[in-house]
Amino acid sequence: MARLEQVLVLEPQNELRFRGPFTDVVTSTLKLTNPSDKNVCFKVKTTAPRRYCVRPNSGVISTGSSVNVSVMLQPFEYDPNDKSRHKFMVQSILAPDNMEDIEAVWREARPEELMDSKLRCAFEVPLENDPAPEADSTQTLSSSASPSKSEQRWVFSSSMDDEEKKKILEECKRLQSEVQRLEEDNRQIRENNGLRRRQLGSSSPAVASLQGDSMTGRILCIVFFIIGVFVGKMVL
């Protein structure tokens, strides 16, 4: 059975362009417009999920409304010899009346109900000392030699607003609890050492100091680990 024609209007229609340098995040905007008389659910997928962050990466577009989707290319070292071909796919489905759960709509959707549009990615590399290059003064990496359908793997685009952010927060809470536990252990050790010092005399202060320093070092290690987790997650 033939696929339904895409009901959404995409701007741009065929290609997302990213203009370098690529040492920082580069954003390209994709505008989705719903000209129909029904609400439309949409998803954005890509063949390179680790290279892009998309916001929003899914949602519902009311009849006659538009949504601007920010496609953020993450920093990378540009290689003109890289033959990778990145693509995006906008998938959509008409929202049923009285829809309550958008995820259930996607789970229960039949293949013939889905509509999709594909866009290739192009990287523009400006020449040195040329802030506004013309078309002939840029090197464009496009997907003119795109891989076959069997080689493409479409993945739901990442968004730090969703599951990834939730996982980071849960890990942070767990590590914070561990720090609090270690601080409590450290406090208890200091109290016990203070009692021993009073009982044993002058020989115990050095022992108490060493144990306290050891516990403090453990706490610092945990704190640095928390910072490393945050930085690592944001970079990825």
TrEMBL record:
Biological process according to GO: endoplasmic reticulum membrane organization; endoplasmic reticulum-plasma membrane tethering
GO molecular function, one term: FFAT motif binding
Biased composition annotated in UniProt, kind: Low complexity: 137-149
Leader sequence residues: none
Subcellular location, record wording: Endoplasmic reticulum membrane
Membrane topology type: Single-pass type IV membrane protein
Alphabetically ordered keywords of this record: Coiled coil, Membrane, Transmembrane, Transmembrane helix
Span list, region Disordered: 128-159, 187-208
Domain (MSP) ranges: 7-124
GO cellular component, one term: endoplasmic reticulum membrane
Transmembrane segments: 215-235
UniProt family annotation: Belongs to the VAMP-associated protein (VAP) (TC 9.B.17) family.
Protein name as it appears in the record: MSP domain-containing protein
